[in-house]
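This entry is retained here.
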Amino acid sequence: MDEPTAAGRIACQRCRHYRITWDPRAPYGCEVHGFKSRRLPSLVVYESSGLECQAFLPKPAQDDGGRDSAVS
């Protein structure tokens, strides 16, 4: 699923530029926009510009390492 939105907003957690920081005062970051914040970067971008984030790129699909999903 490569949809960038969740409930009508950009889902930063699904973007390859989204980062969790070590800063407890600003735990969310965006590598493209170059900032970290207490709030999700997509909300900060929307409130600052009035536009949805244009830098969204979906994260690559994760490989399960070839493991079988069934547990025996």
Summary: The helical segments are 41-49.
